[in-house]
Protein: TRAP-type transport system periplasmic protein 1
Amino acid sequence: MSDNPISERIDRRTLLRGAAAAGVVGIAGCSDNGGDGGDGDDGGDGGDGGDVIRWHAGGTGGTYFPLSGEFEGVIEDNTDFPVEVSSTGASVENVGSLGNGDADFAMIQNDIAYFARNGEALDAFEGSAVENLRGVATLYPETIHVLLNPDADVSSLSDLEGMRVNTGDLGSGTQVNALQILESAGGLTTDDFDEQNTDFTQAANQLRDGDVDAAFVVGGWPVGAIEELATTTDVQILNMSGEERQAARDDASWFADDTIPAGTYDGIDEDVDTVSVQAMIATRSEFSADTVEAVTEAIFENLGQLSIKTDFITVDSAQDGMSIELHEGAARYFE
Structure:
């Protein structure tokens, strides 16, 4: 059982339901995959030129999916490996896919990686640490966007009491972050608002249609779904107070202060203060160290081929905020 107070504050019943929807309730049966061969053994799942690398991303309206598409191009241009990128429910689902061997690489948040590897905070992980989860590199801040319906008259997180709030896909990292922030900085539990759960694109549609009062979107700005929404609808993003940001940081050390610059989205004419977590690439311990090294080298030696988050993704910052141990192949490259 974790000593982390967040473990007790998160609505466990809600998160377990979300984890089940994301298909990770079976993690307990496969979380010790890493003990079968060590970091240098591909376990028969990959490592030979021509084998397809299975890369799990996130929803098509976020940053994970298009960035993973760019990684696919870089890897295929600079190695012998074809890559298959899949749209998923993002962090929590992706951890499950790595744990059971359905994915070779995946995009996840650094906080979710920590929870999974240490078996805490979410019921999907509590007492069932994902032993084979390994880090490759951290990438960029994943900014917490709290999108608001202009008619909702919301100026603080506590104002969301009694309102319809989309906290992200069930079991996703977005949902975890939303519930953390609503409780720590807004004093709200899931009994205090009408929680709804969809991916980024559907959440944007709900805001446009007036079906929710607020929606949490976590992703590196600019997030495609928000950009698209802002072209047709007035967009408001909650400007978190200093006290709210401090409360979020005090309750969860993985949050950091962040700012969405004015002009990032149509209609956002002033900087918006918020918090963020860190996006990262993860893999599984039994996947070939040679392949992981080759993939890591291909990405970080060819950053000029990327067009997304290029101000943040660098060799020098690739271990900032790394919350779990590195895969042997990644360690070879960075060392």
About this structure: The domain at 5-140+279-334 is CATH 3.40.190.10 (D-Maltodextrin-Binding Protein; domain 2). The two ends are 34 Å apart (CA to CA).
